[in-house]
Amino acid sequence: MTIQRLIEDRYGLPLCDHFPQCGEEHSQSGHTTQPTEDNSTLRTILQHASARKFESEKIQESLMQLLFATAFSAPSKSDLQQVSVVRITDPSQRKRIISSNPKIAWTEHAPQFMVWCADNRRIRKVCEEKDYPFANDHLDSFMNAAVDAGIVMQTFIIAADSVGLRCCPISEVRDNIESLSMELNLPEHVFPVAGLCVGWPSESPSTSMRLPLNITVHVNKYDDEEALFRISDYDHRREAIDQPPTEKQRQPERFGIADIYGWSEDRARQYSVPLRSGFGCYIRKQRFNLC
Ligand SMILES: Cc1cc2nc3c(=O)[nH]c(=O)nc-3n(C[C@H](O)[C@H](O)[C@H](O)COP(=O)(O)O)c2cc1C
Predict the structure, then answer these.
(1) Which CATH number does the domain housing residue 116 bear?
(2) To test the ligand 1 pocket, which listed residue (45, 108, 168) has its Cβ within 8 A of the most ligand atoms?
(3) Which of 1, 67, 71, 227 could bond to 155 as cystine, CB 3.0-4.6 Å?
(4) What is the pLDDT of residue 63?
């Protein structure tokens, strides 16, 4: 499949439909302006899909180690490297982590399960050991560690996708954050960002269509004037290839059965109920200063 075709599959639109200016450019510097068809990195990322069904086959430990080595090559804010991952290898521990949340019961059968954590503790310990003040006890420390964790986890996912494995991040592990935190023995200034299931997929997961780039890519100034119209078009495009069955509509007793149950209807219904509203309290308990 061509790169162009992969983009169309991802967005339901050819690339040129996203941008007012689109066409061939000629590079003065000799660098490629158009992706070459054999660029495997682009292919891997464009074909990304989360998987929730896996073969029982184990992943070789040497491959797991290679994936971690690749993942931690990701960029890091100020080279602070504020990420830790806790691999859950004890099946009874995994059961305890997922038992209180029926929504993630399926993760029990993923060959590998881990929890990616933001880790602002290490730099604090380094400062303490040198007897230097840690003068950045504010919200930025929380955010930098969280962003780093997301980037490293995503790099792990790309690496795994590139060898034919599939993953699924699990923020639902944070539904019971206090017990997860205790189970993982997380100290102050460390918190879970997401779980991650990894395995050889037992079926090909479908490509999930993304918002068009004329909503997400802004030029010079943020501008969402057209966003709702464009989201409506996106809903129709997405619904044309992936209309969820009526029984999958969220909260029909509250919102009724929608004729067109697109992305925006589903996401708005999802976010009409509070989710993980205790997270801020937990983060404060982990001694982050959020001011
Ligand atoms: C931080 C993060 C947390 C996620 N948490 C969950 C989760 O708890 N349960 C789940 O089934 N999928 C979860 N996902 C997967 C998303 O649902 C998925 O990435 C999204 O629907 C897009 O689909 P795709 O990854 O197949 O392209 C999560 C993804 C991210 C990035």
Answers:
(1) 3.40.109.10
(2) 168
(3) 71
(4) 98
Q: How many domains does the chain have?
A: 1
- For the record, the structure tokens of 200 come out as 């050889």
Neighbours of 5 (CB within 10 A): 11
- The answer to whether the CB of 39 is under 6 A from ligand 1 is no
Residue 190 placed within a domain: yes
Ligand 1 centroid distance, CA of 60 (Å) = 24
Domain annotation covers residue 234: no
Q: If you measure from the C-alpha of residue 171 to the centroid of ligand 1, how many angstroms do you get, rounded to a whole number?
A: 8
147 lines ligand 1 (CB under 6 A): no
**What are the mean pLDDT values of the chain's consecutive 10-residue runs (291 residues total)?**
95 91 71 80 98 98 98 98 98 94 95 98 98 97 98 99 98 96 98 98 96 97 98 95 92 95 96 95 97 95
The C-alpha atoms of residue 283 and residue 291 are separated, in whole angstroms, by 12
In degrees, to the nearest 5, what angle opens at C-alpha 69 toward C-alphas 63 and 73?
145
Residue 166's H or E segment, with its range, is strand 166-170
Q: How far is the CA of 173 from the centre of ligand 1 (A)?
A: 12
Question: Residue 114 sits in which domain range?
Answer: 61-204+274-285
156 located within any domain = yes
